[in-house]
TrEMBL record:
Transmembrane segments: none annotated. Coiled coil: none annotated. It holds the Pfam family Epimerase. Belongs to the NAD(P)-dependent epimerase/dehydratase family. This is NAD-dependent epimerase/dehydratase family protein.
Amino acid sequence: MKEVILVLGASGQIGTELVMNLRETYGNANVVASDIKDAHPDVMESGPFEEINVMDGNRIAEVVKKHGVTQVYHLVAMLSATAERMPEKGWALNMDSLFHVLNLAKDGAIKKVYWPSSIACFGPNTPKMNTPQETIMEPSTVYGISKQAGEQWCNYYFNKYNVDVRSIRYPGIISWKSEPGGGTTDYAVEIYYEALKQGKYTSFLDKGTMLPMMYMPDAIRATVGLMDAPADQVKVRTSYNLAGISFAPEHVAESIQKIMPDFKLDFAPDFRQAIADSWPSIIDDSRAREDWGWKHEFDLDRMTEDMLTNLKVKLGL
Ligand code: VAH
């Protein structure tokens, strides 16, 4: 049976690159991009795009039927910083949209679902170093609560309705092609733009704020790798811990200064510091490595070199 994939959130930071990666594998016509606004020109010009508001379950079902969709990657979410400003909207968007997609799978309209969780599902009393796959999970943010709840619903739909839904607890993700929006880890993207534009950056997270992070190519490879794994290798049906590199803002500055010695970093922590302080620093992803062969490839310096090289072209510098 031909695989046809629908990506919800194709205009977002991850969706933009995931669509392009999936189209290389499945063929442009077999990967339908969707969002509430137009996506990156590469996405719009390389294959089908449908305008979908994920709060409208009927619209999702209509597009699934129209294109004969077999798999849905549901990437739409209100991220941590934004959701703290509008808790009820954040909860509704993150949860109601997940139910629309899970119920499509329960009803047999689609075969497989990908839905990302986040290290935000952990909270202040979760062990911060080498955070285990199973541990204390008392998130203190709207986004984290929605991700923890979503994980439990994914596990419920797998056990009760045999829905093949798979999930990864993404760390902060860094990329150059599309910018993140509304996240607490966004500093780790902004710093590269500002290094090239201004030669300096003021971080909204303080010195010493170590967080789990990952370069986009690793995140895409992990996402597709999990979805391609044989179902019997996917033994965790809440969401897999995934680790790449953990660093604090000053570590990024040191990495940038190896290429741009005059780059300057200073700190002005804002409300997002409290969010970051509630999250782990280093994640144990041994279960993902054991179950489906995960291994990250980018370290901080290799990411820095790739970010600066590509951003210079993107910014016309
Ligand atoms: C955020 N980028 O900052 C997201 C991510 C682990 C953080 O989930 O909200």
